[in-house]
Amino acid sequence: MNEKEFGQKIRERLNQGTQQIDGITLNRLEQARQRALGKIRVAERQVAMAESHGRGGSMSLRIGGGSSEHHPHYLRMLFVGLALIAGMAGTVYWHQANEDDDDEQGMLDAKMLSSELPLHAFLHPDFKEWVDSSR
Amino acid sequence: MGRQFALSLVLAAALLCGAIAPAHAAGSADGGPRWESLSPEQKQVLGPIAPDWERMPPYQRQRLVNAAKHYPKLSPLEQQRFSERLHDWVQLPHENRDQARETFRKFHALPKEKREELKQRWRGDPPPDAASRAEARRAH
């Protein structure tokens, strides 16, 4: 008898065995199975929560004492979203400030180049002194 | 969750790069605006210095582009002065340009009467009070 034939024999015996089990025993076996499955589900949930808290660190705060283990995930996404918005706002502000500076410098250069006074006046030490003493 | 977090960061970085990139899109490899990237109007305003453009440092090219933006707001006489002085302006050493800007900034911040007084003084005109006194003496 090879391994395959041996496995087939066992299956036949087991099938015969289950057909001979009475209803009360079958019911008790079904209840035991459900209890075992329930314990496995609880254990899996606890492991998932522990992992979530471990990764979340200080971000794993509970809002309003809620019991959902999904809060750390939402908080993390909220944090990323806020960081993204802050980064975008900072970038826009930085660009705006640079553009304002550029615009002001450009205006000053344009006014100087088109001034009634020649360029060399603004380079002349006497004129500089007059300006300084007029302030 | 870690993968989502990493993806979020990558997305954030990509968006930030997307926001910054257009500002530099018209720039050359050294960071300054290329002559080819200028608008026809800017090319016309900065035409007198076109042959010198690529030799200029990036920051100088950028400042000239910024100045050219204000050209349309100038009067025809001012536009003429702007165009005539542009070539001499870019030939000046960087330190001299900064010095001229600083003096002009102070001059521009003065009250109008003071500015007029300094203009007349520079041209060698007599001060307004002396001129009016001389006029009054001649009248008598």
List keywords for this structure.
heterodimer; A: 135 residues; mainly alpha; 4 helices; B: 140 residues; 7 helices; 0% strand; extended
Write the layout of secondary structure elements.
The complex is a heterodimer of chains A (135) and B (140).
Chain A: H1 3-20, H2 23-56, H3 71-113, H4 125-134
Chain B: H1 2-25, H2 40-45, H3 58-68, H4 76-91, H5 94-109, H6 112-123, H7 128-139
Would you write up a description of this structure?
- The complex is a heterodimer of chains A (135) and B (140).
- Chain A folds into two domains: 1-50; 72-135.
- Chain A has four helices and no strands.
- Chain A has helices spanning 3-20, 23-56, 71-113, 125-134.
- Chain A is rod-shaped, with a radius of gyration of 40 Å.
- The model of chain A is unreliable at 57-67 (pLDDT under 50).
- Chain B is an all-alpha fold and 140 residues long.
- Chain B has a domain at 2-92.
- Chain B has seven helices and no strands.
- Chain B starts with a helix and ends with a helix.
- The interface between A and B is large, with 40 and 52 residues.
